[in-house]
Amino acid sequence: MFKFMVIHGPNLNLLGIREPKYYGTKTLEEINSEIQDFAEKENLKVTIYQENEEGKIINLIHQAYFEKYDGIIINPGAYTHYSIAIRDALAGVNLPAVEVHISNIYSREEFRHHSVIAPVVLGQISGFGSQGYILALKGLKEKLVSD
After folding, report:
1. Which of 8, 11, 67, 60 is nearest to 34 (CA)?
2. Which one is catalytic: 23, 69, 79, 133?
3. Is 112 annotated as contributing to ligand binding?
4. 8: annotated active-site residue
5. For residue 105, what are the domain limits?
6. Which of 47, 90, 93, 132 has its CA 20 to 30 A from that of 66?
């Protein structure tokens, strides 16, 4: 059984009320329930966190390494565009990771078009709503099974 950590970054606790044009109307609790339901069907263990603070996200990435998780799915939110510290934490633990964004960051404001996280993860999923998390779980599982 693979063990994955899902990390939701800043402001994702506001899903359902925050800019529904970009993020839809599902709450974080509904999305987490979808993730857990999928994980159960696929025989995956998933632990989910949401943090608004950069340092706490870094601590979770370290925790994933020390607690022997098989991979990380992370939606770094706005930290995507400038957090070298989160980027370095992901590179440092060297766990397979997937960056997820609910909205298509490339169809939004120019400052959202660059990710400092993307170069240190297996891949990036952007613009598929909450299904991005499911796609990330599928992708990580397939990658680990094939390696």
Report:
1. 8
2. 23
3. yes
4. no
5. 3-146
6. 132
